[in-house]
UniProtKB/TrEMBL annotation:
<dbReference type="InterPro" id="IPR004279">
    <property type="entry name" value="Perilipin"/>
</dbReference>
<dbReference type="GO" id="GO:0010890">
    <property type="term" value="P:positive regulation of triglyceride storage"/>
</dbReference>
<dbReference type="GO" id="GO:0005829">
    <property type="term" value="C:cytosol"/>
</dbReference>
<keyword id="KW-0551">Lipid droplet</keyword>
<dbReference type="GO" id="GO:0005811">
    <property type="term" value="C:lipid droplet"/>
</dbReference>
<comment type="similarity">
    <text>Belongs to the perilipin family.</text>
</comment>
<dbReference type="Pfam" id="PF03036">
    <property type="entry name" value="Perilipin"/>
</dbReference>
<protein>
    <submittedName>
        <fullName>PLIN3 protein</fullName>
    </submittedName>
</protein>
<dbReference type="GO" id="GO:0019915">
    <property type="term" value="P:lipid storage"/>
</dbReference>
């Protein structure tokens, strides 16, 4: 049996991961509003499934409270969410124009061949990240 300290840290880590996953799914669902209704529904189902897992596992105060059934159901919900996310990524990859994904710098990528010099003076004032 794990010590109480290990158990407490494990549960805290689990709850933290569930919160991060829920935040990411909420962000995904909000961002899906620009896509067709089928994509929006899938994103909503993913978020709902993660909320169910969070409700099941997030309130546990000890590992003993997590029954085998709860863990199995949570694993199934996460697997369904993963498959749905893979489907969403495939849809976005197949149906979204490349410049939309790349943003405002896509014309510069298309406009200049790789070996052609690029006039960097037009990029003055741009902030780079990294």
């Amino acid at each position: 049996l794990p010590t109480p300290q290990v158990e407490a840290r494990t549960l805290a880590m689990l709850q933290g991961l569930l919160q991060q996953l829920h935040a990411a799914c909420s962000h995904l669902a909000a961002g899906a509003r620009a896509f067709p209704s089928s994509v929006q529904e899938t994103a909503g189902h993913v978020r709902h499934g993660v909320e169910g897992v969070q409700a099941s596992l997030g309130s546990a105060r000890s590992l003993q409270e997590l029954s085998g059934l709860v863990l199995a159901q949570s694993r199934e919900a996460v697997t369904r969410a993963q498959l749905s996310l893979e489907g969403l990524l495939e849809h976005v990859g197949q149906h979204t124009p490349l410049p939309w994904l790349l943003g405002p710098f896509a014309p510069a990528l298309v406009e200049y061949p790789e070996d052609a010099p690029v006039d960097m003076s037009k990029w003055e004032g741009c902030v780079t990240v990294g």
